[in-house]
Amino acid sequence: MKKSYKNKMFLAMLVVFGLGLGIGCGMDTSASINIEMLTVDQAAELIQQQKEKVVLLEFYVSTCSHCREQMPILQSLATANKEKPFEIIGLSLDQDLSELEWYARTHTLPFPLRALKTTTLSELRQAMEPFDIEIGQDFPVPFIIVLGKDGKKIMQWISTTKEDVIQQSIDQGLSV
After folding, report:
1. Buried/exposed 5-20: b ≥16 CB within 10 Å, e otherwise
2. Which residues pair with residue 92 across a beta bridge?
3. pLDDT: is 13 or 150 the higher one?
4. Which of 92, 137, 156, 162 has the most crowded CB, counting CB atoms within 10 A?
5. Does residue 67 contact residue 143 with C-beta atoms inside 8 Å?
6. Cβ–Cβ under 8 Å, residues 59 and 141
7. Planar angle of CA 20, 24, 28, nearest 5 degrees
8. DSSP code at position 26
9. Given CA atoms 59, 128, 57, 114 in this order, what sign does their dihedral have?
10. Mean pLDDT for the chain?
11. CA nearest 62: which of 94, 31, 34, 30?
């Protein structure tokens, strides 16, 4: 009896482990993932190009549990605002791009896959200055900013933020 239980547990563990790796669940783990690598100046230019749109800018790391909690909220915001002048720009701070690739294969992201090339906080502060984005001595993630159509910050948050709170800032930016 005990041996049968152990065998069932072993099989259950194999199934769970296999699903976690994308085996047998219809997930194409071999497809190549395109990650656009940006310098901080290129990221600032990308934001600048979104004039006349409200922009939700998120800095994240794919292995961060709070960042992962935020993704379904961002997906919901993208869906709720898809007919509006609204854009989500996600910028990964992942140093290990294999982690980011795995995350992109196993999750739906509400934005194109972009990562910042290694940079210093002072370079990032300088590049984000025109948008009134305040970056402190450290850089916790997720770091979420809503920018109005004029490119200026409406609100910023550190850590997981509720959908309705973010939506209020988006609505504020859209109403101007």
Report:
1. eeeeeeeeeeeeeeee
2. 60, 115
3. 150
4. 92
5. no
6. yes
7. 80
8. T
9. negative
10. 84
11. 94
CA–CA gap between residue 50 and residue 97 (Å, rounded): 26
Measured between alpha carbons, how far is 151 from 100 in angstroms, rounded to an integer?
A: 28
Task: Give the CB-side neighbour count of residue 99, counting CA atoms within 13 A.
Answer: 12
> In the chain, where do the E strands start and end?
36-38, 54-60, 86-92, 114-116, 143-147, 153-158
Query: What is the end-to-end Cα distance of the chain in Å, rounded?
Result: 70
Answer yes or no: are the C-beta atoms of 155 and 169 closer than 8 Å: yes
Instruction: Enter the DSSP assignment of 159.
Output: S
Listed in sequence order, the residues at least 6 apart from 139 whose beta carbon sits closer than 8 Å to its beta carbon are: 59, 93, 121, 124
Whether residue 112 has pLDDT greater than 80: yes
Contact 43, 59 (CB under 8 A): no
Q: Which two tokens stand for residue 145?
A: 């900013």
Give me 40's structure tokens. Answer: 């901080």
Token digits for 133? 């984005």
Residues 18-45 pLDDT 10s: 434 433 333 445 556 889 999 999 999 9
Predicted confidence (pLDDT) per residue in 56-91, tens digit: 999 999 999 999 999 999 999 999 999 999 999 999
